[in-house]
Write a structure and sequence with these properties.
Blueprint (H helix, E strand, L loop, with lengths): L14 H11 L6 H21 L16 H6 E8 L5 E3 L2 E3 L4 E11 L5 H10 L6 E4 L1 H8 L2 H4 L6 H21 L4 E5 L4 H4 L1 H9 L8 H12 L8 E6 L15 H8 L6 E5 L19 E7 L9 H11 L8 E5 L14 H18 L2
Parallel strand pairs: 5-6, 6-7, 7-8, 8-9, 9-10
Antiparallel strand pairs: 1-4, 2-3
Helix pairs in contact: 1-2, 5-7, 7-10
Length: 365
């Protein structure tokens, strides 16, 4: 099956769902109402995605606090802590998400499946192809390891990464056995290998990402290496930061292209190309013949709707390096990587997804 349109994963949460989840974090609100609100909201966005005509749908990650949230919720061993962050950037200037983090303070022990409930609900209600998203082991190691809190359980940052890779490998195998058609690994952590300035800013606040690129990608491969070829489609998403319409890194794909694009058992590469920060399409020449590239052309960071003719010209430029039949299109990242979401409206979100579908209809009619 050829899928030309999808979104990366997260959608803006409905206000009532977002408010209840935030209230529960403060010990307020009705915990029993959460699952009902999640179910209702997911059914509504599934219907909206079907109406738009997206080839692949998702649950908007509505059951999560953030795109990595289900990892921390499904295991014991994480504890709240402080982790400094390098500055992010917006159209107005610098921003910073603060220092609160879930840090691996003890060895992680599974308490429940990571995405079983999400997958089961989608399988029952999606009425077509759907995806389940999971964070890369590298992201968890970057966001959840400090020498002071973690080294007793994981002497190196890489030790945490490889343990998470084992946990994700088991989860993805279970999802495949349950018939999930599409599993996506989100790896924004690769931005540290694209942008030397980001690595320098991270070192400036005491964060040293000391895992070689090849080892980071090997951990992603470890998660999916045992899947049969006829099993689920595997996607890998790379972005340069996505938090409340802010970005973290810039730079083209050249530093990672050869190693990333040739990663075994990955079928789809979801790559952002919405701004000049992502560089040119030229690295697409290195994509092997067994992979599809999903061009992230539509920005989730700003609400103004992209001109369709301009998008067509971008796809034409990309097709000079990779044939049109091996391309698909999507937004550049999620609309709500964490609960607050990006600074756009729901109406703008749906207009952008409609633009993705209308663009695809012209390209592959």
């Amino acid at each position: 099956m050829t899928w030309r349109t999808e979104h990366v994963g997260s959608l803006l949460r409905p206000p009532e769902l977002m408010n209840l989840r935030l209230a529960l974090l403060q010990g307020q609100g009705d915990p029993g109402a959460l699952a009902r609100l999640e179910d209702e909201a997911i059914l509504q966005v599934l219907e909206r995605q079907r109406e738009l005509g997206l080839d692949v749908v998702g649950d908007g990650e509505f059951r999560r606090f953030s795109f990595i949230g289900e990892i921390a919720a499904s295991v014991s061993g994480f504890a709240f802590g402080q982790l400094p962050n390098p500055d992010w950037f917006t159209a107005e200037g610098r921003d910073n998400p603060g220092a609160n983090a879930m840090i691996a303070a003890e060895r992680l022990e599974p308490r429940r499946r990571i995405a079983q409930r999400e997958a089961a609900f989608l399988g029952a209600h999606a009425a077509g192809p759907f995806k389940v998203t999971l964070p890369s082991p590298l992201v968890i190691a970057q966001a959840g390891w400090t020498p002071e809190r973690s080294s007793a359980a994981y002497p190196r940052r890489a030790d945490l990464m490889w343990h998470v890779a084992d946990l994700l490998r088991e989860e993805i195998a279970a999802l495949a056995a349950e018939g999930v058609p599409y599993v996506q690994i989100d790896n924004p952590g690769l931005a540290h290998y694209l942008d030397p300035a980001l690595a320098e800013r991270a070192r400036g606040v005491g964060i040293e990402i000391d895992i070689p690129l090849e080892e980071a990608l090997a951990a992603d491969h470890h998660c999916v290496k045992d899947l049969p070829e006829e099993g689920p489609v595997v996607g890998l998403h790379l972005c340069r930061g996505n938090w409340r319409s802010a970005w973290l890194a810039q730079g083209g794909y050249e530093p990672v292209a050869e190693a990333l694009f040739s990663l075994p058992r990955v079928n789809r590469l979801l790559l952002e190309f919405d701004t000049e920060r992502a560089g040119s399409f030229e690295p697409l020449r290195l994509v092997p013949g067994d992979k599809t590239v999903v061009l992230g052309l539509v920005s989730t960071k700003q609400g103004s709707l992209e001109d369709e003719e301009a998008l067509l010209r971008k796809v034409e430029a990309a097709s000079r390096h990779l044939p049109l039949e091996r391309l698909a299109i999507s937004p550049q990242c999620g609309f709500a990587t964490s609960i607050p979401g990006n600074r756009i409206t729901p109406e703008e979100q749906w207009a952008k997804l409609e633009r993705v579908v209308s663009l695809a209809a012209r390209l592959w009619a």
